[in-house]
């Protein structure tokens, strides 16, 4: 990092140690990351975290702090952490890469490549899948715990579930099914597993330390997740009653019971599985690098200018059938700016939040990419730690 100052072992606010490098003028982001470890009445603070900011192709912040577990094991430069929904655009971009290759088409029915979808979803397209309009946020029939770890079982169960609404007529956040719907067409047309296609086509050539289906040798670098329900038995599922909408929402999160990683998120069997909506593992450096390659200024962009423009333009907006009571706004896999929940540093930003405050985005207005990854999730909608970093970054950008 040219012109940067090392901050290894430097004590920040409250005696917190922040390691890594910060370019002159961005030191206050290190102070903000240190502040994020302070607990308040409303928020427990970070256990461990990493932050990377790239502006104009130059990494100006690459820092980390805290612990990867409750024994105080320090977060390292190469620590991997579960990124939850930050991984959804990764799955989307892998599908869009297949569109660029001519293997997939956005407005072709999924059943063209995935024949099992023909019975219940004959008109559901890849575009529907990438924009949360596929009407498959939940699986109808009860599944056992381990089903989430079996790609083929999950895809078969999705194909056998009738749509919860008419595809293309509304959108609802596909919390845990998104990655299977985006990834199965890639797997079928490439002849590779999702994990192999991701490594071969996206992360490997760009040396991004980002994994959806970790290699056994990488599992030792993974941080634990400190969240309710992270460890122990999943507790099974109390099969929901009530309206179809109420059943759909609950099953989006808890069918199978381990759907969101409940009870297994800190196990190697979870880390080695491919659950692209939920179980990606990465460094902040890798997520920021992924988004740097999704800026119009990127010298070797992941997507062509036309496809990037389409992917980051509004595809759906308004009331969400799963996140009831809050509007959502999406491109092709990307969350887009909303005044009540800005995705980045300007209204032109595109990216995705992860459970409890992790965030990755690109902002062409500032030629900037950003990643903040944490192992202790906070508020699902407005984590004060994430807001602190964004507010400070906006201040620095003027």
CATH topology title of the largest domain: Beta-lactamase
Supply Rg. 20 Å
Order of helices and strands: EEEHEEEHHHHHEHHEHHEEEEEEH
Biggest sheet record? 9 strands, antiparallel
CATH architecture annotation name of the largest domain = 3-Layer(aba) Sandwich
* N-end to C-end Cα span: 23 Å
Anisotropy-based shape = globular
Work out the helicity level: 25-40%
User: How much of the sequence is in beta strands?
Assistant: 5-15%
CATH superfamily of the largest domain: DD-peptidase/beta-lactamase superfamily
Q: What is the structural class? A: alpha+beta
Give the mean pLDDT.
94
CATH top level of the largest domain is Alpha Beta
How many DSSP H or I helices?
Answer: 11
Q: Work out the count of structural domains.
A: 2
Task: Describe this structure as you would to a colleague.
There is one protein chain. With 398 residues, this protein is an alpha+beta fold. It has 2 domains: 5-78 and 279-305 and 346-397, no CATH class; 87-272, DD-peptidase/beta-lactamase superfamily (Beta-lactamase, 3-Layer(aba) Sandwich). The chain is 27% helix and 15% strand. The protein has 11 helices and 14 strands. It has helices at 27-35, 88-100, 126-130, 151-160, 178-190, 194-203, 244-254, 268-272, 284-292, 305-312, 384-397, and strands spanning 5-6, 10-11, 17-22, 48-55, 58-66, 81-82, 210-211, 281-282, 316-319, 327-330, 335-336, 350-353, 359-363, 368-374. Strands 1, 2, 3, 4, 5, 11, 12, 13 and 14 form a 9-stranded antiparallel sheet that branches. Strands 6-8-7 form a 3-stranded antiparallel sheet. It has a two-stranded antiparallel sheet with strand order 9-10. The longest helix is centred in the last third of the chain and has 14 residues, at 384-397.
């Amino acid at each position: 990092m040219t012109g940067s100052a090392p901050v290894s072992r430097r004590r920040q606010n409250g005696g917190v140690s922040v390691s890594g490098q910060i370019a002159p003028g961005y030191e206050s982001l290190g102070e903000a990351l240190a502040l994020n470890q302070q607990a308040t009445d409303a928020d427990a603070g970070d256990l461990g975290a990493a932050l990377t900011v790239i502006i104009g192709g130059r990494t100006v912040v690459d820092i980390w702090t805290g612990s990867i577990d409750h024994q105080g094991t320090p977060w390292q430069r190469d620590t991997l952490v579960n990124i939850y929904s930050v991984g959804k655009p990764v799955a989307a971009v892998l599908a869009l890469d297949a569109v660029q290759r001519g293997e997939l088409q956005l407005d072709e029915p999924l059943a063209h490549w995935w024949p099992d979808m023909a019975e219940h979803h004959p008109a559901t397209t890849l575009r529907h899948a990438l924009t949360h309009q596929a009407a498959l946020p939940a699986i109808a029939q009860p599944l056992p715990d381990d089903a989430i770890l079996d790609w083929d079982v999950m895809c078969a169960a999705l194909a056998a579930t009738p749509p919860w609404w008419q595809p293309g007529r509304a959108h609802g956040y596909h919390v845990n099914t998104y990655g299977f719907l985006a990834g199965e067409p890639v797997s079928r047309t490439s002849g590779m597993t999702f994990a192999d296609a991701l490594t071969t086509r996206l992360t490997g050539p760009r040396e991004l330390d980002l994994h959806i289906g970790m290699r056994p040798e990488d599992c030792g670098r993974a941080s634990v997740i400190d969240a309710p329900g992270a460890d122990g038995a999943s507790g099974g599922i109390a099969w929901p009653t009530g309206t179809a909408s109420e059943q759909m929402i609950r099953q989006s999160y808890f069918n199978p019971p381990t759907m969101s990683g409940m009870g297994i998120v800190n196990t190697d069997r979870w880390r080695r599985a491919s659950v692209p909506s939920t179980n990606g593992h990465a460094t902040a450096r890798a997520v920021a690098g992924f988004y740097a390659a999704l800026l119009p200024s990127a010298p070797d962009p992941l997507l062509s200018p036309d496809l990037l423009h389409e992917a980051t333009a509004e595809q759906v907006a308004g009331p969400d059938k799963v996140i009831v009571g809050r509007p959502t706004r999406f491109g092709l896999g990307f969350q887009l700016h909303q005044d009540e929940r800005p995705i980045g540093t300007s209204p032109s930003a595109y990216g995705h939040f992860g459970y409890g405050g992790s965030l990755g985005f690109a902002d062409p207005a500032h030629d900037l990419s950003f990643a903040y990854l944490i192992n202790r999730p906070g508020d699902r909608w407005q984590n004060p730690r994430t807001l602190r970093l964004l507010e400070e970054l906006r201040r620095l950008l003027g």
